[in-house]
Amino acid sequence: MKINRRNFLSLGVGAAAGLAFSPIGIKLMDDSSIWTQNWSWTPVPADGEISYKDSVCSFCDSKCGISVRTIAGRPVKIKGREDYPANDGKICPLGLSGLQLLYSPSRVRTPLKKVGKRDSNKWQEITMDEAIEILSEKLKDIREKGNSKDVAAISGSSGIRYALLDRFFKVYGSRNLLKKPSVQDSYKHLVSSMHSVRGNLKFDFENSDFILSFGTGLFDGFDNPVRMFKVNSNKKVSKATFVQVEPYLSNTAAISDEWLPINPGTEAVLALGIANIIIIESLYDKDFVSKYGKNFNDFKSFLFKNYNVDKVSDITGIETKKIESLARGFARASKPIAVFGRGVGDTALSLNEAIACYSLNLLKGNVDKKGGVSFLKDYNYINWSTINLDDIAKKGLLEGERVDEAKTNNVITDSILNRMPDAINSSRKDAPELLIVENANPVYTMSNTKEVLKSFEKISFIVSFSSFMDETASLADLIIPDDIYLEKREDCLFENGVNNFGVGLSSPIVKPLFKTENFSDVLIKIAKKLPSAVSNAFQWENYSDCLEDTFDEKWSDLEESGFIKEKNSYRYVIKRNDFAFPKSFFDFMTNFKSASIDGGEEEYPLTLIPADTIRLSSTFMANTPFVTKIVSDKILKGNYSLIQINSETAKKYSLKNGKVVSLTTPFAKDIKVMVNISEAVVPNTIVLYKGLGHKGYDDYIKDKGVNYNELISYLEDKDTGLDIAYGIRAKIV
Amino acid sequence: MKGGHNNKKNKKFGMVINLDKCTGCGSCMVACMSENNVPFKKDETNKLDSITWMRVYKITNKKKFPDTEFCFLPRPCMHCGGHGDHGHSPCVSVCPATATDYDHETGIVSQIYTRCFGCRYCMAACPYHARYFNWWDPIWPEGMEKTLSPNVSPRMRGVVEKCSFCYHRYQLAKEKAYLEEREVEEGEYQTACTEACPSGAITFGDLNNPEHKVYKLKKSPNAFRLLEKLQTNPKVYYISSKKWVRDAGDNYILNDKK
Amino acid sequence: MSSDVQNKKDDKKVLVLFFSLGLIAALFVGWVIFPKLLYKTQKQPIDFNHSLHLDLVDDSCNSCHFFRDDGTFSGIPKMAQCIDCHEEVQGENPEEEKFVSQYVQESKEVPWLSYSRQPDCVFFSHVAHTQKAGMECKTCHGNIGTSEHSKEYKENRITGYSIDIWGRNILGMAGETWKSAKMDDCAKCHKKETGSQGSCFQCHK
Question: What is this model's ipTM?
């Protein structure tokens, strides 16, 4: 038998026939089509039992209750906690995206020590014990040298955490515990100067039938955003009126019943114009004014002389007709509220402006009333044993000077953080030897970044407790990373409306993922390593112990339900017979001057003002990827911030939509921004959104757009010392 | 399959969104992304390739300063029933892969990622831009994939995705109801955006069920749907007290005569 | 001449022989070797005796494979369940000893190989089938509950699925109901039982 070519072919044909009648072809085709649907590189989330864990969100100061869905212990989704008094089941977009913080690429995963220069970004990983040792040794040395006053801290905390830090600074012997003021400080000043009491100003929006907002970003993140959204929804049902006075059509203005575009910085003028009309047309609450209205006649003649409607119209850019109808609408409402403080309220307002706007509430007698404004004492649940100060502490507290030059006797605002950089840079004050930064990111949030950076260079040692590699942390010499709120227990003050406040407890959803530790625990540990004069004031084993001790018999309640709502909230209300109207009731009105916009008009023909949106966090916490994703492409495009500019103005400067231009202010030169021509801005004004331009964090937010704070400098209110910088003159090339 | 489409027992899930209450905060968008494992990129400013099943549009009355007005308009998938609710949704009728279908029992338009081969006909057909294409593989920063939900499959590059009215939530609600031998109640099946909206602007339910809130709301004199003249028969209704907003709902070609 | 014929006949025979050889070899490869190669055979980490456990529990399959309060199905028990009885070695079975020493004491989950795992794109509701439709576990899972040993787990090297999902014999013919859990099988049963094979979202996620 010969195997020839034909035979071989026959074998092949046979094999082919065999294969054709075997399942190989069909099965392989079937299996490979299934294979194309298996995407081995995409994650397959593990299934398991669904359960919900309650906690509190600490993304901002609203401290909303959250309910975290976990799958077999793995957190997958955050929603608002149903029965939580601060937010009643709902939460803002930042809170919803909180899980992205857990695994954020910018998390500091272990304590870090700077190697080499400040700006080198070179780090050595160290253990938590080593980090605590380094800081406590520094603190010990400085105190021993008698320089305790030269230790400073910038804090953004509240509750027990802040109280611990405050206690530490007292026994250690330094007055330099600094906070960044906000509009709440302006409110305190207002209450103090108008009514000679210490209290917070509260607006009962829920029960008001007319809200007149002087540029307040009520629905852009002001106060507790969830509260405010509900106020808006209820207003639509109750048909209450809401008027927004603002230079641009913010989200708040967009959902108002009427948007009154106003020239930047002239809101207070409008308020006085409205007051004048209300008085002239005799629409004010006569009972109230006759009872409490000392100096009313002075105020009246002052307004009559200075704020006639034509002049007000001229300054504000609002038609007289509109001003008149607004005044009548406000005055004819039964519970009208005038609210003030620009944007979300992270910057203060000058006392004069505040008083001008506030006077509308007084004219309608809508103070200390349901549906009006009220005055509340600080809510306090911390009553620890008194502390004993040793000589070093006493010396530090008595002789030490504030690095921010805050007045010792100013009990309303004990912090004027904005003054610190200039005080240091001009050598009026010595730079601190040691600066502690916690729950704060001053390099990003303070105005005039260049000056801030310059002053930080003079500080010998900076310690950051940030959980993230933010701008300040990356400059620090030592980072002792804090747990994030999803990993720790912490008391959280909350407030929702005038008579609804209390304290909640955040509890860990997961064990700390990285080598981080709760700041309060670290602080207690450090205190215990210091001389007895300091350590004796920290009688607690750890922070948990301190929490339980603070709440005492209320602890089990707090631990079980997750919050304690103050039952006797009226106890905190300052009743009208508790205060007397000051003699100089409207006296300083005669000196009224509208807020100036920083910078000269000739060189810089345009006015740059900031804008807030709830989709951009401008606090020390940067946006999460999800929230940055939903930022409008009219605010951020690629890596460019967009400036919003009126079409007429754009024409004047031949600006085209989408064009990249150079923005220059007295404090920053040639900042590249993109143009967005918009009908939503008053002429000759540039609007720039806050919350962008991060130089720290991760690729999801870093180097995107411009940080508004870099373009401005602080402007000090002559009455309060607070930074009231709002806008600045600018030019476009 | 089509036999059941006029069955009275059939549900018709839909939404009524009160635009007067919407503040444009974007909670619905974030809740949706977090619920449905929607990926995110380092740069999401090109909105054409930015995947947002729920997207809040900002529409304007097109008037010059100072008469400009804005209105926020959240846009999920409309789950079009097509003319007469026969299930001829624009997208379903063009899909060559049967990767999307119309469920007559719920009125929900599906999207099956493993079936989709990425031709994007459905995207061209959808008049609401509710469909999104994965131009890239999703990438989660290291560890963040641990926050993904097992109830929605993550997608890959080359497939289309869109809002599902959180169908998996319906599945979960049904599981509980089956166990307890009862029907799913109105409150048990709510989409993630409805649940999240802090303003309570979104109402979700069975448009066929007179006891559900949406049934009454859709009959509001201020209610309208988007591009009704195309007869896509969307299941998302909007309410606005502003006439210009209601008019804008059907005004997709400038100067188009109605 | 005749030798020519003979030669031609022989040639033909040889051709047929070669053809048959090729055919038989290919059929052998296709029907015997290919299926063996296509599936990777693995043993379960522990040889589990379902029958033994079934005798000891009160609520048959539900005792270990139960529904959670929210109606979701717990699936293969986790260590936390097993530990109730198996904190210590109970009997003399070497498999149990292995289980206790290697998993219980190390507090490690057993990496069971699931015969019926559906891919990630599939949503399957156990409660809809057993509670609502009154089906038995056996219908889809076979007599696994009365088995004394864990059968081998065979995984398709291409798809990564268990053989029990494809479930057919190599002829491509469906056997028992529990040996088929591909989409077409689901659809067929749905069509028969409910009159409709259902919409996509009924099973896909």
Answer: 0.95
